[in-house]
Design a protein that fits this description.
Blueprint (H helix, E strand, L loop, with lengths): L3 H14 L7 E6 L9 H13 L3 E6 L11 H8 L3 E5 L1 H6 L10 E3 L5 H5 L1 H4 L2 H13 L4 E4 L5 E4 L1
Parallel strand pairs: 1-2, 1-3, 3-4
Antiparallel strand pairs: 5-6
Length: 156
Amino acid sequence: MIDTDILRGAKNLLTGCGELKSGDRLLVLFEDAALGFYDSAIVDAVLAAAQSLGIAAQSEQIPYSPTATDPTPDLLARMKAVDRVLFLARTGDQIRFRPALGNIRPIVSYALDGGMLASSFGRTDHNALIKLTRIIHQTPGISFRRTGSAGLTAAF
């Protein structure tokens, strides 16, 4: 059984960030958990969340390469055949702006495990975060700077 908070985070990822809805088709591309970067629990959570939302999800393990290369023609065809592609793999970050992707709008998850999805940040409504970001950027005199492991410091 998948933790409720992890499922909430996965649903937020799919519906908020991915703008997916019931009837949509999703391809989840993931890297081998044995590589030690993405945990397999996140794949399970996303697939369970997709099923509960009526999203037709398929998953496929893809190899990791430190050198970014275009997807194979067969993989590219599978990516084009769905509404959205979710990368639970470093490859997504490497290729997201490559011309070969054309009209494919990939979702690249930087949540690496179930704990990140279950966190308060992972469960916070994605659209609310977008609105907050716009307000911050449009408000004169507000700036943020990163202060290391302590997080962010606001200056007004």
